Amino acid sequence: DGGITQSPKYLFRKEGQNVTLSCEQNLNHDAMYWYRQDPGQGLRLIYYSQIVNDFQKGDIAEGYSVSREKKESFPLTVTSAQKNPTAFYLCASSIGDRTRKSGYTFGSGTRLTVV
Amino acid sequence: GDSVTQMEGPVTLSEEAFLTINCTYTATGYPSLFWYVQYPGEGLQLLLKATKADDKGSNKGFEATYRKETTSFHLEKGSVQVSDSAVYFCATYSGAGSYQLTFGKGTKLSVIP
């Protein structure tokens, strides 16, 4: 079955370390997105990519970086410059110009904790 | 830009009670509207959608009608169950310049036996 796989489900990071969250989809979706979710704050967009080798900053990109070298993959790196990285991270994808009818498909999330 | 306003939670209901979660939107043109559900510790799942005015989306006993005259897409269910306890997100897509959905802040629903 097609879907989005986020790994790992739980991740612990020491302060000052970079860490990379994986997001892989086999839905043949063009567009991919990263969101951060904090308790009671809804979803905040970090980065998004509409095509391979191109991506744009969202509302809270500072301290994060991404790459889109393959259509299927959109990894997110949380750098040491991110002041408060402890959060639940969600990856999503959509069919580009069919987003109007289909919306997004989400992964199951990665919970990052700084220790 | 687009925006979505949902009723603030948390909402606590007894089992078999009637549920309404209000959602209003601001968007250009003729947006599509979505409701997503997030169970504890999981990602969001599409619950239902409507792509044009007066459409009714429905799934798992939940319904929402796209009301363009009131710019609303309220979520309803006639008889909630404990298993409906989750966070519900309303979202809109107008396609203005990107493929992005605009989400509301979410409404947490707790159903008690």
Written overview of the protein:
The complex is a heterodimer of chains A (115) and B (113). By secondary structure, chain A is mainly beta. The longest helix of chain A has 4 residues, at 99-102. Chain A is 3% helix and 49% strand. Chain A has one helix at residues 99-102, and strands at residues 4-7, 10-13, 19-25, 31-37, 43-51, 54-57, 64-66, 76-78, 87-94, 105-106, 110-114. Chain B is an all-beta fold. Chain B has no helices and twelve strands. In chain B, the strands form three sheets. In chain B, strands 2, 5, 6, 10, 11 and 12 form a six-stranded mixed β-sheet that branches. In chain B, a hairpin with a 5-residue loop joins strand 5 (32-38) and strand 6 (44-50). Chain B is globular. Classes of the chains: A mainly beta (115), B mainly beta (113). Chain A binds chain B through residues 4, 6, 30-31, 33, 41-43, 45, 48, 50, 90, 92, 94, 96-97, 99-101, 103-109, 111, and chain B through 32, 34, 36, 41-46, 49, 51, 89, 91, 93, 95, 98-101, 103-106.
Search tags:
heterodimer; A: 115 residues; mainly beta; seven-stranded mixed β-sheet; four-stranded antiparallel β-sheet; 1 helix; 11 strands; 49% strand; B: 113 residues; 50% strand
Query: Biggest interface and which pair forms it?
Result: A-B, 27 and 23 residues
Q: Termini separation of chain B (Å)?
A: 41 Å
SSE arrangement of chain A, N to C: EEEEEEEEEHEE
Low-confidence stretches of chain B: none
**First CA to last CA of chain A: what distance?**
36 Å
Overall shape of chain A: globular
Tell me the radius of gyration of chain A.
Answer: 13 Å
Can you lay out the helices and strands and say which pair or pack?
The complex is a heterodimer of chains A (115) and B (113).
Chain A: E1 4-7, E2 10-13, E3 19-25, E4 31-37, E5 43-51, E6 54-57, E7 64-66, E8 76-78, E9 87-94, H1 99-102, E10 105-106, E11 110-114
Parallel strand pairs in A: 2-11
Antiparallel strand pairs in A: 1-3, 3-8, 4-5, 4-9, 5-6, 7-8, 9-10, 9-11
Chain B: E1 3-6, E2 11-14, E3 19-21, E4 23-26, E5 32-38, E6 44-50, E7 56-59, E8 62-65, E9 75-77, E10 86-93, E11 102-103, E12 107-112
Parallel strand pairs in B: 2-12
Antiparallel strand pairs in B: 1-4, 3-9, 5-6, 5-10, 7-8, 8-9, 10-11, 10-12
